[in-house]
Amino acid sequence: MMWLGSRVLSRLCKKLLFCL
Known about the structure:
Layout: H1 2-19
């Protein structure tokens, strides 16, 4: 599940970058 969480965090980071 570690890799799955990593992918989720990556997507969230991308969304945050787009929001910023």
